[in-house]
Design a protein that fits this description.
This protein has 282 residues and is an alpha/beta fold. The chain contains 10 helices and 10 strands. Strand 8, helix 6 and strand 9 form a beta-alpha-beta unit.
């Protein structure tokens, strides 16, 4: 296994098993440099979103990297204000311009039940998804999926979807394994991507993580990312520090044993929990 090892999505598209996340990475020089560094050390999967407001910087970094577009797996996400058929098409077209690309490899609905559409989220998601299915069929998106969708959101989407989501990106880290959602997604061939796989930094103060890291002579971050991989999740670590960007790639030369995995799975709530998409204020 390596950074270029892939999972196979339900439609046959290959997706690198580890992605580079850009959530909370400021647009401009910081985002551009961190994505360039990630590509330099071997990442071939970059994850951004309209809501992160750094798509332009990500697009610039990809251009400057000198890598072929087809050698990079690029994900972006639809922001909450742009749900609905026409709005989705318009927002997607704007993303292509910012990212300086003719297609994206993966496009996700970022949140299932934003405040703007809370009174009619199910119908709005159906219209949004119809637009995404068309863009997928036109070849402008190689794979389509969702983010922060819980089981009832997926069941609602199933009523009208002609194409089933290939990915669901949710909060997954030691202490938040989302077991029931994992079982559901596995049964429906939906790959789970782990955003904030380091628990938005909270993982570094968990004593059990330190013990397991010392046992394997690895860092806490490397143990957390290895945990994701051994659950068959796709982790999306984020960093703006070159040494850490590289460190987060060094996770393929060790394995957590059953006892380690059991302990990490039992750390319920140490990094917080998945936000409830039905009560978020955005």
């Amino acid at each position: 296994m390596s950074l270029t090892s892939t999972y196979l999505l339900s439609n046959g598209v290959k997706i690198p098993q580890v992605g580079f996340g850009t959530w909370q990475t400021p647009a401009g020089d910081v985002a551009e440099k961190s994505v360039l560094e990630a590509l330099k050390v071997g990442y071939r999967h970059i994850d951004t979103a309209q809501g992160y407001k750094n798509e332009e910087s990500v697009g610039n970094a990809i251009k400057k990297s000198g890598l072929k577009r087809e050698d990079i797996f690029l994900t972006t996400k639809l922001w909450n204000e742009s749900h609905g058929y026409e709005a989705t098409k318009k927002a997607f077209a704007e993303s292509l311009v910012k990212l300086q690309t003719e297609y994206v490899d993966l496009f996700l609905i970022h949140w299932p039940n934003p405040v703007t559409f809370r009174d009619d989220w199910e119908k709005t998601n159906a219209e949004t998804w119809r637009a995404m299915e068309e863009l997928y069929q036109e070849g402008k998106i190689k794979a389509i999926g969702v983010s922060n969708f819980m089981i009832h959101h997926l069941e609602a989407l199933e009523k009208t979807a002609k194409i089933w989501p290939m990915v669901n990106q949710v909060f997954l880290a030691p202490g938040e394994v989302q077991h029931d959602l994992g079982v559901y997604c596995a049964a429906h061939q939906i790959l789970l991507e782990a955003y904030s796989p380091l628990g938005t930094g909270k993982i570094f103060s968990v004593p059990e993580m330190k013990t397991i890291a010392e046992k394997h002579q690895k860092t806490i971050a490397q143990v957390a990312l290895r945990w994701s991989l051994q659950h068959k999740f796709l982790p999306l670590p984020k960093s703006v520090t070159p040494s850490r960007i590289k460190e987060n790639t060094e996770i393929f030369d060790f394995e957590l044993d059953k006892e380690d995995m059991r302990l990490l799975d039992s750390l319920d709530g140490v990094v917080g929990k998945q936000k409830d998409p039905d009560t978020t204020n955005f």
